[in-house]
Amino acid sequence: MTYFVDRQCQIADEGLPSEEQLTTWVTAALKGRLEDAELSIRIVDPEESQTLNHQYRGKDSSTNVLSFPFEMPEGIELDLLGDLVICAEVVAREAEEQNKPLFNHWCHMVVHGVLHLLGFDHINNAEAEEMEQLERDILASLEIPDPYLITE
Predict the structure, then answer these.
(1) Would you say the pTM of this structure is higher than 0.90?
(2) Residue list for the binding site for Zn(2+)
(3) How far is Cα 75 from Cα 147, in angstroms, rounded to an integer?
(4) What's 79's domain CATH number?
């Protein structure tokens, strides 16, 4: 199994997950689901996140993670899975609001985004339950607690 993560930073790199950390999290999400994969993870500011969220989802606000699955042209075989765009400021704010360790929340966002790249979604309740359980299982394999538990 070979996973290649291209880490791109549009903002200052201080205090952000390393390519090695991102690769560890991607590997956990893909293990048993895909043998080989390549993806890009772009870390951005709220302005870029808002622009992309508006352009591709019609929502005029920044968001934690956007997933862009690669659409393979017919007759071409590549291990390219797609791209994730993660807004560092939103992830940091959510971690603080939810009283979670920052890197645990980063891991959750990477796992969440990778599952979207694999075709999982949370549009209806059944899909949401399936996706959230996968997230819990993957995060538990990394010794990260259930991200959906509400803590005060």
Answers:
(1) yes
(2) 112, 116, 122
(3) 40
(4) 3.40.390.30
